[in-house]
């Protein structure tokens, strides 16, 4: 799959403090890449460097193979939502996008379909001035600014800020549609980890400016295991599990056993075996690793 965005040895130093120090990140065509990290980790600075809003201290950024230092035409292919745009509060959403159109020269006929796409084309909103928009409506308008010129790449920094759960769901579905049906490449940061886990193909986690994890979402979801709760204090549960065979023990205590994943039929046989040997079982559950588990373990303060 073609790499659309490539970051190589990218760094940014402010007043002798290194805020970004990324060896390599690649974003593939048509994928949703979740870019995660605590506040101050360097996410927004990295996005601004991709957009040439901030000059890197060192390193190289390639967009569709073009060096962003040498060729700024790549910006025509990118729509971004990094910070809230400067709106004209006494104009409607349509009129704001029309001003934007006069500046950039994209097709004026794209404005209404874009407003419809982000949920701002209803009759009740058509004449509403932006100064009367809710925070959620402003987020939708910011997304419209990113989409109206029909880009191939979207850079979205916290696109669901200010939205209620229904609004978050709508934006999530829209992002997935843009990537999977329209073929857009999406580079998105968010602090709502379950949302990223639902939509991203891959994630990169940065902490203190450095990439500490990168992986496929499906690989995270496939990391599963079995946990059995019971009274294991009076017998040798490890010996019993060894006698049962075909079980890998990952952890054990007087009330808890953690085992490698197994098929349902094998698990049922194991529980029957344990109860038949006098163990009192009160809990059996199949657990899966989550993006939040990885995030918290990698970004917790020492």
UniProtKB/TrEMBL annotation:
Domain ABC transporter: 5-233
InterPro entries the record matches: AAA+_ATPase (IPR003593), ABC_transporter-like_ATP-bd (IPR003439), P-loop_NTPase (IPR027417)
GO molecular function: ATP binding
Keyword entries, A-Z: ATP-binding, Nucleotide-binding, Transport
The family this protein is said to belong to: Belongs to the ABC transporter superfamily.
Name the UniProt record assigns to this protein: ABC-2 type transport system ATP-binding protein
Source organism of this protein record: Streptococcus saliviloxodontae
């Amino acid at each position: 799959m073609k790499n659309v965005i490539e970051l190589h040895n990218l760094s940014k130093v402010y007043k002798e403090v290194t805020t970004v120090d990324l060896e390599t990140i690649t974003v593939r065509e048509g994928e949703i890449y979740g870019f995660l990290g605590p506040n101050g980790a360097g996410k927004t600075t990295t996005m601004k460097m991709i957009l040439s809003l901030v000059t890197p201290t060192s390193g190289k950024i390639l967009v569709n193979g073009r060096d962003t230092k040498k060729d700024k035409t790549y910006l025509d292919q990118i729509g971004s939502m990094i910070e809230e745009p400067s709106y004209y509060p006494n104009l409607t959403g349509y009129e704001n996008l029309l001003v934007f159109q006069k500046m950039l020269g994209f097709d004026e006929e794209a404005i209404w379909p874009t407003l419809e796409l982000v949920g701002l084309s209803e009759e009740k909103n058509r004449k509403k001035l932006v100064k009367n928009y809710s925070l959620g409506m402003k987020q939708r308008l910011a997304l419209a600014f990113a989409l109206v010129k029909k880009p191939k790449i979207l850079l979205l920094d916290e696109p669901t800020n200010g939205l209620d759960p229904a609004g978050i769901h709508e934006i999530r579905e829209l992002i997935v549609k843009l990537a999977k049906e329209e073929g857009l490449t999406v580079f998105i940061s968010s602090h709502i980890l379950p949302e990223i886990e639902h939509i991203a193909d891959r994630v990169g986690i940065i902490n203190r400016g450095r990439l500490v994890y990168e992986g496929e979402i499906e690989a995270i979801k496939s990391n599963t295991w079995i946990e059995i709760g019971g009274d294991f204090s009076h017998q040798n549960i490890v010996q019993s599990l060894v006698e049962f065979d075909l079980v890998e023990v990952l952890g054990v205590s007087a009330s808890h056993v953690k085992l490698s994943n197994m098929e349902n039929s094998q698990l049922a046989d194991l529980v029957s075996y344990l109860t038949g040997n006098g163990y009192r079982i009160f809990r059996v559950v199949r657990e899966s690793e989550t993006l939040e588990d990885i995030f918290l373990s990698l970004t917790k303060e020492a």
